[in-house]
Specification:
about 290 residues; alpha/beta; Rossmann fold; Pantoate--beta-alanine Ligase, Chain: A,domain 2; 2 domains; 6-stranded parallel β-sheet; 10 helices
């Protein structure tokens, strides 16, 4: 059987000027626009975001930009996987309409001096504690993407749950006319959340990695059944560390604000369990709703 011809790649633009010129033609035709911001190294999880975007809007823009301002001095910016050719082929198959591919000079030109400093869910002692300044970089680059594209809808994965809440709050606080949608986590068969960083895992580390999802599921079930939260979390932390992980946190938080759960809250919040832990040289994050 003959192999089906690959779809043509989406148009690629590298400057905000070219991006806005392309978008203006769509707006003249009253076409709704969805944005899927990424850092490339696309996997099935990213493609699921594009699929949701296509269901939600007439046109889909995917940005690919490894944002230097969200990486700390000892993090993996230089070794973050970059797979542009494969990414463009995947986006062709997924039906993306336009790819915004700026370089650092385009996003942060000479003299750039304005950075956002979000609070709220960006300052709750989760990833912000272990990655100082990370959400400043995230909020700044996403705000720039939002004001450059002016999408009707923006799609982000639930895996980076704290990031999602930071972006929702930022868009609300700055009155940006975009609906921010969280998309379900895509997982391997053994429960490991898909991540571009999974390629760093050694075979032994990969075999241990599903403990994060397993502990989240077990903990959510136990908390929902009425077991004391701290006892459940303490048990879960021990299981994760027993697999060789260095644990940053395993926490139960208010799903909307990411605030710590009070002993006797005035309202009963929805609860989200969040975990971050490092095995070998790879830091993994995951979360699960109670």
């Amino acid at each position: 059987m003959a192999k089906a011809a690959r779809k043509s790649r989406p148009r690629v633009v590298k400057t905000v000027k070219a991006l806005r010129e392309a978008l203006s033609e769509w707006r003249k035709r009253k076409q709704t626009i969805a944005l899927v911001p990424t850092m490339g190294a696309l996997h099935t999880g990213h493609i699921s975001l594009v699929a949701l975007a296509k269901k939600s809007a007439k046109k889909v823009v995917v940005s690919i930009f490894v944002n230097p301002t969200q990486f700390g001095p000892n993090e993996d910016f230089t070794r973050y996987p970059r797979t542009l050719d494969a990414d463009l082929d995947k986006l062709a198959d997924a039906g993306a309409d336009l790819v915004f591919l700026p370089d650092a000079k385009e996003m942060y030109p000479d003299g750039f001096s304005t950075m956002l400093k979000p609070s709220g869910p960006a300052a709750v002692g989760l990833d912000d504690k272990f990655r100082p300044g990370h959400f400043d970089g995230v909020a700044t680059v996403v705000a720039k993407l939002f004001t450059s594209v002016m999408p009707d809808i923006a799609i982000f994965g639930d895996k980076d749950y704290q990031q999602l809440q930071v972006i929702r709050t930022m868009a609300r606080d700055l009155h940006l006319p975009v609906k921010v949608i969280g998309a379900p986590i895509v997982r391997e068969k053994d429960g490991l959340a898909l991540s571009s960083r999974n390629v760093y895992l050694s075979p032994a580390d990969r075999a241990a990695a599903p403990v994060l999802h397993r502990v989240l599921k077990e903990s959510a079930k136990a908390i929902a059944a009425g077991e004391p939260v701290e006892a459940v979390l303490s048990r879960g932390r021990a299981k994760i560390m027993a697999e060789g992980f260095k644990l940053d946190y395993l926490e139960a938080r208010d799903a909307a604000t990411l605030a710590k759960l009070g002993d006797e809250p005035q309202r009963k919040p929805k609860v989200r369990l969040l975990v971050a832990a490092k095995i070998g040289k790879t830091r993994l994050i995951d979360n699960f709703a109670v």
